[in-house]
Write a structure and sequence with these properties.
Layout lengths: L9 E2 L6 H21 L5 H8 L3 H29 L1 H18 L6 H11 L5 H10 L7 H32 L4 H8 L1 H17 L8 H6 L9 H12 L2 H11 L2 H18 L4 H13 L4 H40 L4 H25 L8 H20 L9 H16 L9 H16 L6 E2 L2
Parallel strand pairs: 1-2
Helix pairs in contact: 1-4, 1-6, 1-7, 1-9, 3-4, 3-5, 3-6, 3-11, 3-17, 4-5, 4-6, 4-9, 6-7, 6-17, 7-8, 7-14, 7-15, 7-16, 11-17, 12-17, 13-14, 13-17, 14-16, 15-16, 15-18, 15-19
C-alpha cells in the first residue's frame, strides 16, 4: 500500500491536519479502551470478596481478558485494509462498550469470566491505532508517531489503576454498597467508549488524502476485492518468518505489560499490606511511564535508523528487550516496598521502550500487507499475556517466582530479533526514503506547534 502526502513532522498542538487528528483521536481512543479493558483489575480485591473467587479463578479471568484479543487482533488488521481504520475503530468502540457496561450484571465466576472474555475484544484497538499512524506519517517519524500514539494509549493502563479506585470510593461516599459500587463504576468507561466511537467517525479520515472508499474511487488505492484478497494479504504476512519473530518479541514486551496491569494492584495489596487505593496508585505508576517511555523507544528507533538504517532499528529492539528481561528478574526479588517501586519503574521504562521499538520495525516488513502484519504482531502481545497468565493462576507458584521465570523468558525472546533481516534493496530504498523525508522536514520531528 502506497499512501501519499504522509506527514514528516509531528505537530502535537494542532488538530488542523488529518494526520494530527488521526494521531490524537487514535491514542485517546486506545487510552479509553484501557478503562474498559482493565477497569476491573484495580477493583479485583473487592470483586474477589463479592463473588468468592479463588486465586485460580482470578487467574482464569486474567487469561480470558486477553485471550479473545489474540483472535480479534488477527482479524482487525485485515479489516483495516478493507474498510479503513476510521470505520473499524468506530465499530470496535461502540460494540465494545456494551460488555463493559454489562459486566455489572455478573453474579458468579462463570458470568464474570464471560464478561471479561467479551471485553477483551476492545484490546484490538491497539492494532487500529498503529495502522492509522503508520499510514499517516513518513519514514523519518513513523517510529516516533507509532510509539507515542501507542504509549499515550497504554498510559490508560496507569490512569485506570488510579482513577477506577477513586470512582469506586466516590460511589461508596454516596452511600452505595461495595457489591453494587464496583458494578456501577464500570458504567462510566462504557458510556465514554460509545461516545468516543461516534466522535472518531465524525472527525477522522482513513488517509491523508481521504477515506479508503474515496481513494479507491479515484484509482489511488487498489480495490478491496473480497475474501480472497483479504486471505491473500493475511497469508503473505503469515508466510514471513520475520512477522512471527516480531510476534514472539511483542509477546515478551506488551504481553508482559498486560500481565502486570492485571496483577500489579492485587500483588502490592497482598504482599505489602497496603490499602486498595494505595496499591492502585503504585500499580498506576507502571502504566504512567507510557507518558514518555514508549515514545523514547520510537525516537531511538528513528535515531538508530538514521545511523544504521533498518538494521539499526532491529539492533535497538534487541537492546531494549535484553534490558527489560534483566530488570524484570530484579523486580521479582524485591521485598522492600521502596526498592520494589524503584525497580518496577526501571522495568517499566524498558518494557515500554521495547514496545515502541517493535512498531518502529513493523511498518517496513510488508507495506502491501501492513494491516495483516500489524494484526499478527499485535496479537503476539495478547498471546504472551495468555501464556504469562498461566504462571499466575497456580496455587503452588508465588507471584515472585512467576515474575522471575517471566524475566528469563523475555531474555530468550530477545534472541528472535536475530531473525528480522531486510534485503540490501529494501535497506537502500528505505534509507533513501528516510533521507528524502528528513530533507523536506524543515524542523524538529516532534514539534509543539
Amino acid at each position: 500500500m502506497e499512501i501519499r502526502n504522509k506527514a514528516n513532522r509531528i505537530r502535537l498542538f494542532t488538530l488542523k491536519t488529518p494526520q494530527m487528528r488521526a494521531f490524537h483521536f487514535s491514542w485517546f481512543a486506545f487510552h479509553l479502551c484501557f478503562f474498559g479493558w482493565f477497569g476491573i483489575a484495580p477493583l479485583m480485591a473487592v470483586v474477589r470478596d463479592d463473588l468468592g473467587l479463588t486465586k485460580t479463578q482470578i487467574g482464569n479471568t486474567i487469561i480470558a481478558s486477553v485471550a479473545i484479543t489474540v483472535i480479534v487482533r488477527l482479524l482487525i488488521g485485515v479489516l483495516c485494509d478493507r474498510i479503513g481504520p476510521r470505520r473499524a475503530y468506530t465499530w470496535l468502540l461502540c460494540l465494545g462498550s456494551l460488555p463493559v457496561m454489562a459486566i455489572g450484571f455478573a453474579d458468579s465466576f462463570e458470568t464474570f469470566l464471560l464478561a471479561r472474555l467479551a471485553i477483551g475484544a476492545i484490546g484490538a484497538s491497539f492494532v487500529i491505532t498503529q495502522y492509522h499512524t503508520s499510514i499517516m506519517f513518513a519514514p523519518n517519524v513513523v517510529g516516533t508517531a507509532n510509539a507515542t500514539s501507542a504509549g499515550w494509549g497504554n498510559l490508560g493502563g496507569g490512569t485506570t489503576q488510579i482513577l477506577m479506585p477513586l470512582i469506586f470510593s466516590s460511589l461508596l461516599m454516596l452511600g452505595v454498597s461495595e457489591a453494587f459500587g464496583w458494578r456501577l463504576a464500570m458504567v462510566v468507561p462504557g458510556v465514554v467508549l460509545f461516545l468516543t466511537g461516534i466522535a472518531y467517525y465524525r472527525f477522522t479520515q482513513d488517509a491523508p488524502d481521504g477515506n479508503f472508499d474515496e481513494l479507491r474511487a479515484r484509482g489511488e488505492l487498489p480495490a478491496a476485492s473480497g475474501e480472497s484478497s483479504a486471505g491473500q494479504t493475511f497469508l503473505a504476512a503469515a508466510r514471513d518468518i520475520r512477522v512471527w519473530a516480531l510476534f514472539v518479541v511483542y509477546a515478551a514486551c506488551f504481553g508482559v505489560e498486560l500481565t502486570i496491569h492485571n496483577i500489579a494492584a492485587i500483588y502490592f495489596f497482598d504482599n505489602f499490606d497496603l490499602t486498595l487505593a494505595t496499591a492502585g496508585m503504585i500499580a498506576g505508576l507502571f502504566g504512567l511511564m507510557n507518558l514518555f517511555a514508549r515514545t523514547l523507544g520510537g525516537i531511538f528507533s528513528d535515531l538508530f535508523a538514521r545511523q544504521a538504517g533498518l538494521k539499526g532499528r532491529v539492533r535497538w529492539l534487541f537492546i531494549a528487550m535484553l534490558c527489560e528481561g534483566i530488570a524484570l528478574m530484579f523486580f521479582s526479588q524485591m521485598h522492600v516496598l521502596a526498592f520494589a517501586i524503584g525497580i518496577m519503574l526501571v522495568f517499566s521504562l524498558f518494557v515500554q521502550m521495547a514496545e515502541g521499538a517493535t512498531f518502529g520495525v513493523v511498518p517496513f516488513i510488508n507495506k502491501r500487507a501492513l494491516g495483516a502484519v500489524a494484526g499478527i504482531v499485535g496479537a503476539g502481545g495478547n498471546a504472551g499475556a495468555v501464556a504469562a497468565g498461566f504462571l499466575f493462576r497456580s496455587e503452588s507458584l508465588s507471584y515472585q517466582q512467576g515474575l522471575f521465570y517471566l524475566g528469563v523468558a523475555v531474555i530468550i525472546a530477545a534472541l528472535c530479533t536475530l531473525l528480522v533481516r531486510f534485503s540490501p534493496e529494501v535497506e537502500a530504498r528505505e534509507a533513501s526514503a528516510y533521507r528524502e523525508a528528513e530533507a523536506s522536514q524543515g524542523g524538529a520531528a516532534l514539534s509543539l506547534r
